[in-house]
């Protein structure tokens, strides 16, 4: 994208502005590993296509690139540390940004909570998601899972009970609560 921006700054295409795209191919790099398109973004019929491509990428990287890196870290053990560091860098970038997407923060927090890595940043992402969508039971469940991953079992139990207040029949939440309560009992 920086190369496209530099080209625009140097005068751009003499035919005018209309579209821009970014494609990065990596074996099994695509969404859930079903294809090889690690990045595939297109902007068409836009008066500022490169600017719009940058805006889309800034959101997209957190929602799709970070999970792809985490998945690749499991699939390619020899490169695990590299992929986890890349994902962690995206987590930090999201936390430092002015992003206001509870779904993005929730996704990042959930992924890292399951890995039990970077617990403080994971909790921060889950907290931001919860602040942006305080009545979303799935986000509250992620907040609980993040506390669990950080070893804060009492808070995990508390937040899972909050999720169950919103969705009392949710079987997954019930199993989560049981898992957190068992961890809390073992701690005592």
UniProtKB/TrEMBL annotation:
InterPro entries reported in the protein's UniProt record: DUF1028, Ntn_hydrolases_N, TPR-like_helical_dom_sf, TPR_rpt
The protein's name: Uncharacterized protein
């Amino acid at each position: 994208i920086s190369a496209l921006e530099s080209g625009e700054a140097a005068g751009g295409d003499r035919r005018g502005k209309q579209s821009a795209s970014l494609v990065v191919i990596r074996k099994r790099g695509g969404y859930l590993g079903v294809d090889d398109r690690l990045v595939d973004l297109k902007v068409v019929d836009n008066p500022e296509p490169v600017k719009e491509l940058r805006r889309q990428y800034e959101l997209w990287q957190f929602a799709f690139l970070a999970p792809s890196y985490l998945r690749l870290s499991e699939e390619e053990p020899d490169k695990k540390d590299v992929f986890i560091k890349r994902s962690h860098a995206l987590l930090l970038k999201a936390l430092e940004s002015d992003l206001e997407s509870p779904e993005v923060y929730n996704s990042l927090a959930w992924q890292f909570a399951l890995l039990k890595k970077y617990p403080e940043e994971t909790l921060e992402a889950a907290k931001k998601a919860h602040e942006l969508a305080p009545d979303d039971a799935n986000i509250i469940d992620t907040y609980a899972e993040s506390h669990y991953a950080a070893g804060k079992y009492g808070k995990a139990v508390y937040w899972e009970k909050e999720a169950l207040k919103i969705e009392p029949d949710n079987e997954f939440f019930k199993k989560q609560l049981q898992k957190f309560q068992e961890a809390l009992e073992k701690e005592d």
